[in-house]
Here is the input.
Amino acid sequence: MLKIANHPIYTHPLPKGHRFPMEKYDLLPRQLLYEGTCAEENFFQPGFPDEAAILAVHDRTYFRELKELTLNRRAAIKIGFPLSKELIDREQIIACGTMMAAEYALEHGIAMNIAGGTHHAYSNRGEGFCIFNDQAIAARHLQRKKLADKILIVDLDVHQGNGTAEIFENDASVFTFSMHGEKNYPFKKEKSSLDIGLPDDTGDEEYLKILKEALPQLIEKEQPDFIFFQSGVDILSTDKLGKLGCTISGCKERDRFVLQVCHDLGIPVECSMGGGYSSDIKTIIEAHSNTYRLAQEIYF
Here is the structure.
């Protein structure tokens, strides 16, 4: 059965004109239920993670300042959200959702997180709407519990996974692969294990050609026993914060390829949704929904 982490709706008001579409986290599970892709039993509600799991990745002082809401103003502005207890609680629950989804993936082959993909969170700071790095926390969680040894993080968001790269910079047990817009945020890139920077307006054909050449070779070389997939849909040409030129069908083919490779090779995969900032919320929901439709089609 496909297991999907769902989360409390974030109700803390964002400033007028804020560009982050928080409503997608409410609309996406409703769409999946409405169309029959998923049923209520597919969803689970995570709780709070053991703080040791967060501290295995994040700096203790940073974590304490977040929980006590004493993070300095400049650091808070860089995150992009107005800080509140509700937000910090929710971000911890999201990380727990990815941890639990990773364990479900070991059992069922795949599991999902409606939220997550918070790859701009560094070990000691947050930025770009990211506070805790959920897939980094879950990767370390699997290793600490001896459920996985070599891990591959496949980050196909339009923005480089700079926080993930920093966290695992000197750790050969986690291979970080980021394929992103070369000239997009973050403008100062970190060094992933493998970075593929794409020129502006890269469309479906070239995007898929590069991915289909790179990923199988990478898996063959690294031999991971677990994969985390950051499946951001901000590669779309309609995305307000992206600069690539992919269509919804191209994005769907991207997800089909990644999930089919994981399935055929028998490598468990956890998917976190990542970014998506098209002007029309229906475009965001359709692109994200495709990932779940494909998971059901390929695995179940």
Q: What stands out?
A: The chain has one domain: 3-299.
